[in-house]
Structure formats: structure tokens, C-alpha cells
Write a structure and sequence with these properties.
401 residues; D-Amino Acid Oxidase, Chain A, domain 2; FAD/NAD(P)-binding domain; globular; 28% helix; FAD/NAD-bd_sf; alpha/beta
Length: 401
Amino acid sequence: MSESRDVIVIGGAVIGSAVAYYLTANPDFAGSVLVIERDPTYANASTALSSSSIRTQFSNEINVRMSQYGFEVIQEFSSMMAAGDHRPDLNFHPGGYLFMASTEDGVETLREKHRVQRACGADVILWTPEELAHAFPHLRVDDILLASYGRSGEGWFDNMGMMQGFKARARAQGAEYLSDEVTAIGHDGQRAGSVTLKSGRQINAGWIVNASGPRAALTARMAGLDIPVEPRKRTSFVFDCARSPEGSARVNDGRLPLMVDVSGVYCRPEGRYFLTGAPPHNDVAVDPDDFEPRYEEFEDIIWPALAARSEAFEAIKPVNQWAGHYAFNVLDHNLILGPNPQMPNFIFANGFSGHGLQQAPATGRGVSELIVYGGFRTLDLSELGFERVLENRPFLEKVVI
């Protein structure tokens, strides 16, 4: 006897679970939802290995507004996901982001971004080098021409808490979760009709949602489709600091922000330690099962940049490290959301390029609207559609870290 579900979601981390939550929470949706996750431990999921931050400091309006909605969800998460007496807390740290520019081109980029952000109502300000030095006295700012700081609506939070909250509520609302792996997708070139699982089961589908993160292209190929998304490795380091500057800020109750140095190295507080990382010098696609950290990046890239930026970071030592993957959209570093017109019941939610956790709420809501209503009802995400891939028409995001 054949099985069938109205919607099958391939990938059960934060994107897939957000899709399942918003579908089952939609009063106009009465169908069945099955989420298939190949690794129920989520040990190597991009969600679990993320730096878990959210910002409004993007260069295009859609990304700003997606993060603004993500922040609204973070603020209301405990009540949205409440089950009985259990009210999950994402432990949000309102540290803000700090971007700096040391060239005239960089200054112009910050100013262009700021105009977009302010037009969206984001609480972002520009600082002169003198204002920057006053706010964060541990920083060396001799080379800085301008800085951009998010006073509110930015920070970091519990990554797995968000995913598990969406998952728990989705299940409570009727979504099924299955630990298995999709090995084939049945299709006729115009419609995706079923999935075949490693266990041997075959399940018919009305809709299929590709939420498989860095494996997005592998999933798409099973349906005879292509998507310009590949796994790019990012190594994160936690370090101890002999003379921590945390608490020295003259803004935000002494809390330091997530600082993005002009070198591309980022750094933020992580409890008594600091979390840091940087784009690798040789940023190429990797095997989706390659999670070996690039240990040399700390000595070769990160420590020199941090030591040059602050005397406080001259004496630091790594205490932990791990490697995760960006689902990197090589076309334009932005999410691809929606169907390929060739196969309208196969929905892409892929290519977040490091922004998936913060964009999960808006993505889950958007996919729900596409399936239930055939179009977006709240935030118009149509510019992120697959058509731009077919037309080789990038929708660029300038600020990818």
C-alpha cells in the first residue's frame, strides 16, 4: 500500500523545522507534513555549528526586513513556542554588530548600507573614529575612517533552542518527523511525485521542499534540477583572553559587540571567552562530509588581525574549534526561495550563505504562504525566486561574513 503526504520537507534543521511550524500553524492549511532528516543528532547541521547571530546591517532591503522579522520572533519565541509550562528561552544577548571601514570605498559601502537600513527603520548609527574609540576604548582606530553600529535588534542567541522550538511546536501541531535519508525523487520532468528513502520506503508527495542546507544541490539533482549552491567550510574558534576587554564599553552596559574587522575577521564575546572566525583565503567548495577544522587559520589569519586591532587581543589562546558549512549561493550570496518554473511543486529554500538561522522565521513563513496561497502574503520575497538563477541575474548582498 503506497503512502502519501501533502508536503514532504527534506531536511529537518532550522529551515525545515521552520517550514513545518509555519505550515502546521497556518489556519488555512489542513494537509499533512512529513519532515525527513538524515541525521537526527544534528551534529553536523549548519544550524548546530552556526555562530548564532542576527543583524539588520545588510546591503539590501529584503535581508534587512527578514532579520527584523527574525528578531520579532526571537523576542516572542517563548510565548510562540510555549507548550504547557514549558516556555523556551533563546537567551538573546543584545550585543549588536560593529562594522568598520578603512578605505574610501568601504566608507561609501557603509553609507549606502546605512541608507537602506535606516529606510527600513533599523536602529543603526554611523560613528567617526573618535566616536568609535570613545565607545570601545580597547580598539585601535588609527586606520579607521567610519564605523557602523547596531544599537538594538542585533545580537546572538541559542541556535539549537530555535530549531528545537520550531520542531517541538511543529510536531505538536501534527507534523511528522522521520529519521531517514532521501535517495531518489520520482518526477516526470514537470512535477515531483515521490521520494524513495534509504530504508526502502516510497512516499508520494503533493509538494516537496528542499531544506537540505549545504546538500541542496545533491537533493535538487535527484529531481533533475540544478541549483548554484555548494558547501563552503567555515572554522570557528573559541579563545581565552588574558586581559578580556568585555565590560569596558561605554555603550550597551559595557557589553562588546560582534566586531567585524576590516580584514574580515569577526569576534564576539562567548561567556567568559570569545568566539571568532574569518573567511578562508582559499574559499572553495568542499565535500559535504568534510568537517575537519582548518586549525592554521587562527595563527595565520585571525590572531594577527585581532592583535593589530586591540592590545587586549595580543595575548589569546584557542580553547576549542569546529568546522561547519555555509550553504553558499555562488550566484549572489542570497537565499533562493521558491520553485523552478519547470517543476512548480518543488520548492527551494536554499543558499543562505551563512544567514540561514536568522532568516529561518521569514523563510518558513514565506514557504507556507507559497504552498497555501500560491504567493507571498506578508513579506514579499519574490526577488529571491529561482527565476533570477535561470536568467543569471544576481541579486547581490555585499555584506557576507
